[in-house]
Design a protein that fits this description.
The protein contains 14 helices and no strands. By secondary structure, it is an all-alpha fold. The longest helix is centred in the N-terminal third of the chain and has 40 residues. The radius of gyration is 21 Å and the shape is globular.
Length: 400
């Protein structure tokens, strides 16, 4: 399952990241066709409960896996390059791309929202501020959109750097106890139960117990806790990778099957909630807990699955992984844009979803290949490309 002792590239994590990135396209296409209520102001006339189920399924593990991998990488950089180098790297690779791309993507998505609203109100493509979506009560028009992930990720890395600096002033016994505690949580089933408790606490205040990002530029404490626990897990996982990664790889199937059971419980509880949404308040806390358990079990199980069976360089997945940052930034322009083009198409929701996923994937990869891969944008997002011989040998560090 690879070398876990040093900072060499883990192809398993590259391959896992590639799959998670592509699932982001699937997830945001589902948003167009939800049968239930949506927090976003656009929706296709053709809906299907399958879109709701698929969204809940993917949402359970996709962002948790990303934050675990990001925490793992940040800890790797601290150990191999130092805290200062990690901070400089995160400024160049996260803060700077966010500052450059957010205004452009925000403006384009704003225009697409207006077109979508015109379609929903009048059935034709156009722009009319009279049918524009209303601003949510107490909300802001300026939001991070789907880029909330890298926005929070940057702050997590800065907090990690601060923690590394502060750790030097802690007694060695305290440092060892902290690491032993996380090692225990990472390697025992009851550890994941305990780690699901903060997810249940912060998620219980949301509809049906499922936390949804606000996209606010002012960090939300509940969202910080929810994502920060996964980031910290990844950080601590790197610190004891030699012992923990083989164990996770050996028991991945148990994690995945247990997650399937807790996901079934979540759906059953959600069904109870839908029948009596106002009278059973405590059910939301149980939904949040079982869904949090699913997130942990499937996230750790997927890490183990890829470590066990996908720890070899795959040319296609490596290419998709290399493109993942660019695709992450621009993919919602595709899911919304093709959603607009398919809005009045005389076909069902599943057909529209399939076409949109394929078209968005194709355009994102094509634009990456033509305009990003070997340009300054590619250097900005992914760093300088290693010589082919070194890349083939797998000596470069895992990308964010």
């Amino acid at each position: 399952m690879g070398n876990f002792a040093g900072g060499a590239r883990l192809h398993a994590f590259d391959n896992l990241r590639a799959i998670m990135m592509w699932l982001g396209i699937v997830l945001h296409v589902c948003v167009n066709h939800l049968d239930g209520p949506s927090t976003l102001p656009w929706k296709d006339p053709q809906s299907t409960p399958f879109a709701d189920l698929l969204l809940i399924f993917i949402h359970a593990f996709r962002m948790p896996v990303f934050f675990i991998l990001a925490g793992y990488l940040a800890a790797m950089m601290v150990e191999t390059r130092g805290v200062g180098a990690m901070v400089r790297n995160r400024v160049r690779r996260i803060a700077l791309p966010f500052a450059l791309f957010w205004p452009v993507v925000f403006a384009l998505m704003g225009a697409l929202v207006l077109v979508y609203a015109h379609l929903m109100a009048r059935g034709t493509i156009g722009l009319d501020l009279h049918v524009a979506p209303k601003r949510p009560a107490g909300g802001s028009l300026l939001v991070t959109m789907h880029m909330w992930f890298i926005y929070y990720l940057f702050w997590f890395c800065m907090l990690g750097a601060l923690a590394c600096t502060a750790r030097a002033f802690l007694p060695a016994a305290v440092q060892r106890a902290w690491q032993r505690g996380w090692d225990a949580l990472s390697s025992h089933w009851w550890g994941l139960v305990l780690l699901a408790l903060p997810l249940a606490i912060v998620g219980a205040g949301y509809r049906a117990g499922m936390l949804t990002p606000t996209g606010s530029f002012i960090p939300n404490l509940r969202e910080l806790v929810h994502s920060g626990v996964f980031f910290t897990f990844g950080w601590q996982l790197y610190r004891n990778r030699a012992a923990l990664l083989p164990k996770i790889g050996a028991h991945y199937l148990s994690y995945l099957l247990a997650g399937l059971a807790t996901f079934a419980i979540t759906l059953a509880l959600f069904g109870v909630f839908l029948k009596a949404p106002g009278s059973i308040t405590r059910i939301e806390a149980w939904i949040s807990f079982s869904y949090g358990m699913t997130s942990w079990l499937w996230s750790v199980g997927l890490l183990g699955l890829f470590l066990r069976h996908m720890d070899r360089q795959n040319t296609v997945l490596r290419y998709v992984s290399d493109s993942s940052y660019w695709v992450f930034l621009v993919h919602m322009l595709g899911t919304m844009g093709f959603g607009i083009l398919l809005f009045n198409a005389p076909i069902g929701a599943l057909a529209k979803m399939s076409i949109n996923v394929l078209a968005t994937s194709a355009v994102c990869l094509a634009t990456y290949h033509l305009f990003v891969r070997r340009t300054w944008i590619g250097v900005l997002l992914n760093g300088k490309r290693a010589p082919r011989a070194l890349a083939a040998a797998g000596t470069s560090a895992v990308s964010p």
